[in-house]
Design goal:
two-stranded antiparallel ribbon; globular
Length: about 90
């Protein structure tokens, strides 16, 4: 389970401090080298057990920038054609 940050992100940093698992990093710390914010799918829990919705999405001022869904299985890392560990940016 992990949230994804889409390419409409305005890099405002609102989500960074809200993440209880510190799974979001800015473009300077993105392990893929991409110039986008990145959510570590290995540590992101979608705030299940902490909040009703991901805290980053509640803090984000850009509607639709942060997306998520809940899945029963953490074992399935593929989400809509995206691979865990790679940035999930929509064109």
């Amino acid at each position: 389970m992990a949230v994804i940050i889409t390419d409409i992100c305005i890099s405002c940093d609102a989500c960074l401090d809200e993440c209880p698992t510190e799974s979001i990093v800015d473009n300077d710390e993105n392990p893929t080298g991409e110039d986008i914010y990145y959510v570590n799918p290995e540590t992101c829990t979608e705030c299940i057990g902490d909040n009703d919705a991901p805290a980053c999405a509640d803090a984000c001022p850009t509607e639709g920038c942060i997306q998520w869904d809940t899945r029963d299985s953490v074992a399935n890392p593929v989400r809509e054609g995206k691979v865990a560990g790679q940035p999930c940016v929509e064109d």
